[in-house]
Amino acid sequence: MNEVPAKRPTAEDIERVFLGPPARHTRHQVAAAAGVPSELAARIWRALGFAAPADDAIAFSDADVAALRRIGVLLEEGLLDEKIVIRMARALGQTTARLAQWQTEIVLDHLADTGEPVADADIARLLQTAERLLPDFEKLLVHVWRVQLAAAVNRLLAHDELAGGTPSPRVTLAVGFADLVSFTRYSRELDESALTELVEGFEARASDVIAARGGRLVKALGDEVLFTAQDPPAAAAIALELADAVRERHDGPDVRVGLAYGPILPVMGDVFGPTVNLAARLTAIARPGTIIIDTGMAEGLAGVPGLEICKIRRRPARGFGVIQPYVLRAVPADREQAGETGEQPAQASARQAR
User: Fold this and answer.
1) pLDDT in tens, 171-202
2) Is residue 18 located within the same domain as residue 134?
3) Which GO terms describe its molecular function (predicted)?
4) Which structural domain, as residue segments, surrounds residue 80?
């Protein structure tokens, strides 16, 4: 590898590496060259998260013309309408913005001296590393995107089959919230490096467990993750394995999980609806290291071997009135071998779970 210059890279250096040939069009020129109305082009750029340049600013390249022209062709052929284009552009912009920020931080953290301010040489090394990685990573990005698309369509197909072939914007899924207990206290006590390790470790464990069990990580919010699963048994397996994985880290906070099963409304990769809200309420009442489930989950897990479902006292939940929660546990191996089902009378279960 050539010796990296210590001087700080300029904006021109960065654009050369990531964007190629320099900009040479104004916003009206790029729209005209692509055959797309200026007003629509401006809406597309905004949806993608790009800054709005002045009318006379040279801010767009030939690559921007080509990208906008592709969108214009999709509109002309009637494959997509303007509303769908804007929604898809917004999804693309928000997702790639987070991805780019995340990857930049990971690579910079790897290249920079731990605990030291970022130096010009660190930025220069980052740029040189990116230049070498870009061609391969661009292909990897497209491949992973295609795999995720295939998985998303397969999930829709499975939902449709479960619903008897009746099309509906709502689907029935198990929804889970898992959060780290006392995260605020830990965040005050840990230094920046340790806090980053804690958050990234939790997200990594959650992502691995959810993917291994066929679930989907909807979003991660530092100390909390939201996931979905096809059915109650899959969600229960995720929750139990995640609790075990977090428990193995003896020096960190414990995790608590809330699970609910019912109809949800998917919107731009996120999920909404009463089932999602109920899962969040169940998480809030869960004690450290416990998994609390709703009646839909409890009914869906009836008869599943290796699980113990304990009814606990009813309690109020904002927006739902008084709800009946249950504690979900794994039956210890020695009891399972002895043939115990884990089913207990409601009163005894309630006393044990309190």
Assistant:
1) 899 999 999 887 767 767 777 777 777 788 88
2) yes
3) adenylate cyclase activity
4) 11-158
**Range with top average pLDDT, 69-73, 109-113, 337-341:** 69-73
| Lookup result for tokens 């899924």 | 173
Kindly state whether residues 174 and 315 are assigned to the same domain: yes
Mark whether 150 and 183 lie in a shared domain.
no
Cα–Cα distances in angstroms (integers) from residue 206 to residues 198, 243, 307, in the given order: 12, 9, 21
Dig out the tokens for 74 from the structure. Answer: 């999709």
Q: Does residue 45 belong to any structural domain of this protein?
A: yes
Q: What is the DSSP string of 179-222?
A: EETTHHHHHHHS-HHHHHHHHHHHHHHHHHHHHHTT-EEEEE-S
Read off the pLDDT band of 231 (50, 70, 90).
very high
pTM exceeds 0.85:
no
| Total number of domains in the chain | 2
| Cα-based distances in Å from 137 to 9, 100, 130, 142 | 22, 12, 9, 9
Look at residue 341 in the predicted model and tell me its pLDDT: 52
Nearest CA to 291 among 313, 275, 308? Answer: 308
Spatial separation of the C-alpha atoms in residues 161 and 172, rounded to whole Å: 11
Q: In this structure, are 152 and 24 located in the same domain?
A: yes
Q: What is the helix (H) or strand (E) element at residue 148, kind and residue range?
A: helix 120-162
Q: Which of 134, 132, 137 is nearest to 2 (CA)?
A: 132
Averaged pLDDT score across all residues of the chain: 83
Contact 31, 37 (CB under 8 A): yes
- Establish if 353 belongs to a structural domain: no
Can you tell me the mean pLDDT for 293-306? 95
Alpha helices per DSSP H over 7-115 = 11-19, 27-34, 38-48, 62-76, 82-111
Beta bridge partners, 258, equal 177, 292
Q: Do 108 and 76 share a structural domain?
A: yes
The answer on 139 and 108 residing in a single domain is yes
Nearest-angstrom CA–CA distance, 253 and 201: 12
Residues 261 and 306 both lie in one domain: yes
Q: What is the CATH number of the domain that holds 261?
A: 3.30.70.1230
Nearest to 245 by CA among 214, 289, 278: 289
